[in-house]
Amino acid sequence: MVFTISTEQFPYSNLAHWPPLTYRNNSVSPLELRGEFIDYLNAENTSKDSKELQPWIPFCEGKCAFCYFPVNCERQIYSTYLIALKKALRLYSETKYVKSSDFGELYVGGGSPSVLSEEQITDLLDFCNSTFNLTKDCQIKFTACTSSLTENKIRVLSSYNVNQLDVGIQTFNTRLRGFLALKDTAEEAKLKVKTIKRAGLGVSIDLLYNLPGQSLDEWEKDLNQALELDVESVDCYPLDLYANTPLARKIASGEIDKPGDYRMELQMYLKAYQLFKENGYFPTCHNRFSRLKKDFEKPASEVIGSGAGFFMGTVGPFQYCDIENISEYIKSAENNVFPLANLSKLSTDDEMKKSMMMLYVRVPVNREEFKLKFGVYPEYAFPDAVNNLINKGLIKQENGELKLTEKGDPWRFNIAWEFFKNLEENK
Ligand code: SF4
Question: For residue 137, how far is the Cα from the chain centroid?
Fold first, then answer.
């Protein structure tokens, strides 16, 4: 199927890249809520919802030119950091809430955790295994970059029954890899993916699109290369240009071309959508095309983790991020203090919005479940948003559920924001 959407039909004049309620727009109130958060953690967890454990490794070999994450490249600090990280994770593990929780997924994120030594990787995985209740079929995922992932590390991860490596490739194009300051060549990156596959591990790769001067043909070549490598899934991210990155500075100075506008970005997304669908990969999660059944199950409702710059914490109604500065993070953990930088608590209205917003990760909203939880059907809680989106063909009602349509898929982040506009007015 080929998408042909003319610009007159565009429902929005830009493509949002992020949903609401990320750490980018949370209110900061760590001190006021800290006591309430700790009280919550000290109570039993009665929900049986699946949980994700996320130890965070903020280290990389060097910084990529587009990267806006707070990453650190000082090798000598790894071991001190890992001691502090385990201390912070232990603070969570010793709470009643976490003791009464099971984790169906362990995701080692960052940064590039593959920069750690084999011993450090084994020690961290052993620690998580012995300290938290991981389910028997717990999915273990590990973030890696091709340049720091050695064959020995792949063997270690394979022997530990890691299910999937999330590998940052970004692009196979040599010129574009140069712009992004990636450490290895496209050939080396491809060989590494093949080595991972030979070791029997699943591979998900990250690709970036709408790069400076990138043509639709070049993007299509990257997509075909991913298919040729037979990876399990591909996360396709549009370039998000942050002003203080080396890439943004080079573009501002005219040294390299600007990325395309949102129309080009849309075309590239639709090309990926079409090509992946033709090859048995379907859209799921934030930006993923996958052929794995597991990727289409309901995502974990809570993420408990820690690490300098960790930003995905969700426990009951609380959302939290950790301190970004590594020395301050270590100091806090050494003093047995949860290393929080930002803590917020969702109100019932926020919870309603969040339930609707899950459309952006392609999770349908079950009308009856919504009513049971909030006392009202979604179309009464959000009449304007639901009606507008249905009228525009961006969402649909089917079998008692509200769900994203194929037409709405590229606009899913814009759609998520619709539910944060006018709840108060509709009451
Ligand atoms: S490897 Fe990933 S986290 Fe590290 S600098 Fe590059 S983009 Fe950022």
Answer: 21
